[in-house]
Amino acid sequence: MFFCTSLRKRIEWADIPAKLLAEQQLRWQEQSLETHDLAIQVPRHNREHRELFRLLLLSASDLEHPGTAMTRIERLYHQTGGRKVGIIFLLQEKSPNGNGTISYMNLQCSLLSAFEIPTIPLFSTRSLLDTLFKFQRQLAATREEIHIPRAISLLPYCTLKPPMPEHPKNLLSDVCHTVGELAGAATTRDGQAYIRSLVSEPGSTVAEDIIDFWEQEFTV
Question: For 19-42, what is each residue's pLDDT tens digit?
Answer without folding.
Answer: 999 987 778 999 999 999 999 988
